Automatic annotation (TrEMBL):
Record organism: Brevibacillus brevis (strain 47 / JCM 6285 / NBRC 100599)
Enzyme class: lyase
Residues that hold substrate according to the record: 17, 39, 66-75, 129, 191, 200, 220-221
HAMAP family recorded: OMPdecase_type1_B (MF_01200_B)
Residues annotated as domain Orotidine 5'-phosphate decarboxylase: 11-236
Listed EC numbers: 4.1.1.23
Protein name, UniProt field: Orotidine 5'-phosphate decarboxylase
PROSITE patterns, alphabetized: OMPDECASE
Catalytic activity: orotidine 5'-phosphate + H(+) = UMP + CO2
Residues annotated as signal peptide: none
Alphabetized Gene3D superfamilies for the sequence: Aldolase class I
Gene Ontology CC annotations of this record: cytosol
Pfam family, one: OMPdecase
Gene giving rise to this polypeptide: pyrF
Length: 245
């Protein structure tokens, strides 16, 4: 049972969507000893620089550095070589950059990973959950259904040798069917029952996301914006445990 609990905690990533180290400290201080994995996005990384990764690693936390690299293959490769040296556990690129860019990113990540150290997981961002059908069809000029494009991007990502994709939990079953069970899925858009939906549209509860096969859940404001973040965290863990028992 304890093993199962530990696994769940290691698979729930708390999004630190802040712009200062002070806010981060205030947020993680009460959660220390509970949470295991955090996500650093562009807002925080650009404001605080690479030192934010070592700060969080020193706190014993795993770090998903969510910088969504998207550039020509050679530049993406160099970016990943540099990112590998920061000590993050998970990094990502946009699948829309294509197979050659993603393969180059993986090569760069391998080159930058210190001998004997584990290579960070490399994840492809499929279609952003904020991109609706109309935007995709008309502005991006990509025809078809969003789900079909997501599955196509997942296949491309696997072909390029990446470890998995970021997607909506609702898309996980089709991604696993297309790319296999071992292909990692990282899913934002998580709301515990009764939580504010905010700007997310295709949401699930943490229990549903795990049931659909998500490997990692990204949870932001439901925890970081709560009056009692530890209480919310504990109730999520309890709800998931109960659902799985
Ligand atoms: O607060 P909330 O739980 O909605 O935060 C979700 C996090 O996941 C945010 O950091 C957001 O940028 C990120 N994300 C997302 N949808 C994607 C990719 C990333 O919500 N498709």
């Amino acid at each position: 049972m304890q093993q199962q609990l530990t696994d769940i905690r290691e698979r729930m990533i708390v999004a630190l969507d802040f712009s200062t180290l002070d806010e981060v400290k205030k947020c993680i201080e009460p959660l220390q000893g509970h949470i295991r994995y955090v996500k650093v996005g562009m807002e925080l990384a650009y404001a605080e620089g690479p030192a934010i990764v070592s700060f969080l690693k020193e706190k014993g936390l795993n770090v998903f550095l969510d910088l969504k690299v998207h550039d020509i293959p050679n530049t993406a490769k160099g970016a990943m070589r540099s990112l590998a040296r920061l000590g993050a556990d998970m990094v990502n690129v946009h699948a829309a950059g294509g197979v050659a860019m993603m393969a180059a990113a993986r090569e760069g990540l391998e080159q930058g990973t210190a001998a004997g150290a584990a290579r960070p997981l490399l994840i492809g961002v499929t279609m952003l959950t904020s991109t609706g059908l109309q935007t995709m069809n008309q502005e991006l000029a990509i025809p078809g259904a969003v789900e079909d494009v997501v599955v196509h991007y997942a296949r491309m990502t696997k072909q390029a040798g990446l470890d998995g994709v970021v997607a909506s939990p609702l898309e996980v079953p089709m991604i696993k069917k297309a790319a296999g069970d071992a292909f990692v899925t990282v899913t934002p858009g998580i709301r515990p029952l009764g939580a504010d939906q905010g700007d997310q549209t295709r949401i699930t509860t943490p229990e549903q996301a795990f049931r659909l096969g998500s490997d990692y859940l990204v949870i932001g404001r439901a925890i970081t914006g709560a009056k009692d973040p530890v209480g919310v965290w504990q109730s999520i863990v309890a709800a998931v445990e109960k659902d799985r028992s």
